[in-house]
Amino acid sequence: MMSDCANCRSAGVNRREFLTTGSALAITAVLAACGDGIGGGATGPSNVSETVVLANYSALGAVGGIAVVSGAGTPIAVVRSATSQYRAYSLICPHQRTTVLINGTGFRCPNHGATFNASGAWTGGQRTSGLSEFTVALNTTAGTLTITS
Ligand code: FES
């Protein structure tokens, strides 16, 4: 059965096709708004610019060490991923924005239990996306790490 709508008739679209297509588009729009459709999406603050003195965080003295280096209200974790390599992640959970905590060699959200490895990738618990990673610049002379978004 063709639609009563003149535009639909001229396009050869019937009511059922219109409703089906419209519903699919609405669902797609909702999922896109959520990032990955499973909660969250981009969670990293966009105004981060922070320099930390690495010697102030004993946990970063060895490869695999993780330290919270939050400043200016932004929860950030630094991971020492190799002898002269560091990575920084937002500790804002991509699911519902709870602050994620260090848990062994990775992270765990205390709210619904999402877990993440030391590379920020989701590994279990509440399904969500990974932690947002910041850009880092190591100054070996000064012993500092500059973290920017
Ligand atoms: S807020 Fe982190 S798992 Fe839900």
Describe the model.
- The chain is α+β, with helices and mostly antiparallel strands.
- It starts with 5 loop residues before the first helix and ends with a strand.
- The protein has 2 domains: 1-33; 49-148, 3-layer Sandwich (Rieske Iron-sulfur Protein).
- The strands form 2 sheets. A 6-stranded antiparallel beta sheet has the order 1-10-9-4-3-2, with no helix packed on it.
- The chain has 2 helices and 10 strands, in the order ααββββββββββ.
- The structure holds FE2/S2 (inorganic) cluster (FES).
- Residues 93, 95-96, 98, 109, 111-112, 114, 126 line the site of FE2/S2 (inorganic) cluster.
Number of domains in the coordinates?
2
Q: Taking strands numbered 1, 2, ... along the chain, how are they ordered across the largest sheet?
A: 1-10-9-4-3-2
Write down the CATH class of the largest domain. Mainly Beta
Largest sheet: 6 strands, antiparallel
Overall pLDDT, averaged? 80
- CATH overall fold name of the largest domain: Rieske Iron-sulfur Protein
Provide the CATH architecture of the largest domain: 3-layer Sandwich
Q: Which consecutive residue ranges, at least 5 long each, have pLDDT under 50? A: 1-38
Helix content: 10-25%
What ions, cofactors and ligands are bound?
Answer: FE2/S2 (inorganic) cluster
Q: Strand tally, please? A: 10
Radius of gyration: 22 Å
Distance between the termini: 54 Å
Helix/strand class? alpha+beta
SSE diagram, text form:
Blueprint: H1 6-11, H2 15-33, E1 49-53, E2 66-68, E3 76-82, E4 85-90, E5 101-103, E6 106-108, E7 115-116, E8 122-124, E9 133-139, E10 144-148
Antiparallel strand pairs: 1-10, 2-3, 3-4, 4-9, 5-6, 6-7, 7-8, 9-10
The site of FE2/S2 (inorganic) cluster (FES) has 9 residues, from loops.
